[in-house]
Amino acid sequence: MDVKPLKKLKLYGFNNLTKTLSFNMYDICYAKTVEDRKNYIEYIDEQYSAERLTNILTNVADIIGANILNIAKQDYDPQGASVTMLVSEGLVASNENHGEEDHNSEAPGPLPDGVVAHLDKSHITVHTYPESHPDEGISTFRADIDVSTCGHISPLKALNYLIHSFDSDIMYIDYRVRGFTRDVTGKKFFIDHKINSIQNYIAGETRNRYQMIDVNVYQENIFHTKMILKEFDLDNYLFGITKKDLLPGEKKKIKQRLKKEMAEIFYGRNIPKV
Predict the structure, then answer these.
(1) Site Cleavage (non-hydrolytic): which residues (predicted)?
(2) DSSP secondary-structure letter at 154?
(3) What is the pLDDT of residues 184-202, one digit of tens each?
(4) Which of 9, 147, 183, 269 is least surrounded by Cβ atoms within 10 Å, i.e. has the fewest?
(5) More confident call, 137 vs 175
């Protein structure tokens, strides 16, 4: 669905609207042994390094039309990483490390550990939360992502790239527009583009893969969409083993545990055991 902007506004001064796109993304897996769970955490720490975070955020800044002025990154011991970017909306004289990759061909990658990027009065943040159930073997990996911008640049431009990069089992996506800007006559505008659902900005291929629910508060310019994968292949949720390594009874129990975990996260409530 095409989403057209409002008639171009002639503004008095800077566009003061703050547009924020927020994600909670979840990946679920089953790690059978204590050793597998340990290896899972180590895998996350290795894959979600500050270097990878920097690449993802560089592409996000490029897509939304922001320019990176400075990058600071750090991997932590025993685990975790952070990246900080200073970014401007306008053009800069030198942009040597920017936009060298093909955004559309970037394969879906694992989720990072921690990121902060500042866009003048705006920011991009990513934090991750890996955890394992001590008895059930379920390992849940959550990433919280915020892209907040001021001015004409919009975080919605990076929506499909982020979904593609973090290719998750479950996603909560929030978009809100806060504050106001004025036109040359002094009239306030509390939004500068048309939107009735975040789904308007999600690629058709992605919409076909996920079951989606909307909860929107139009009068407050608040939009919420949550998504869960439609298809379930047990092999995609096993760490350190495959379906061939499990007995039929084990496969059934593990599948039930995984689906219960996913349903609880998607609906935001605990589901009693039957």
Answers:
(1) 121-122
(2) -
(3) 788 888 888 889 999 999 9
(4) 269
(5) 175
User: Per residue in 169-187, is it b (16+ CB within 10 Å) or e — as a string?
Assistant: bbbbbbbbbbeebbeeeee
What is d(CA 152, CA 89) in angstroms, rounded to the nearest whole number? 8
For the 18-267 domain, the top CATH level (class) is alpha beta
Residues 6+ apart with CB under 8 A from 233: none
Q: How confident is the model at residue 89 (pLDDT cuts 50, 70, 90)?
A: low
Token pair 């689906």: residue: 259
The domain segmentation of the chain, as residue ranges, is 18-267
Report the chain's terminal Cα–Cα distance, integer Å. 42
Q: Which two tokens stand for residue 273?
A: 């055991």
Number of helical (H) and strand (E) elements in the chain, helices listed first: 5, 12
pLDDT in tens, 32-85: 888 998 888 788 777 777 788 778 888 888 888 877 777 777 777 766 777 777
What's the pLDDT tens digit per position in 95-119? 344 333 333 332 333 334 555 555 5
| E strand or H helix that includes residue 258 | helix 248-267
Q: How far is CA 101 from CA 98, 140, 163, 197, in A?
A: 8, 30, 17, 30
E strands along 38-136, which residues?
67-75, 81-88, 114-119, 122-132
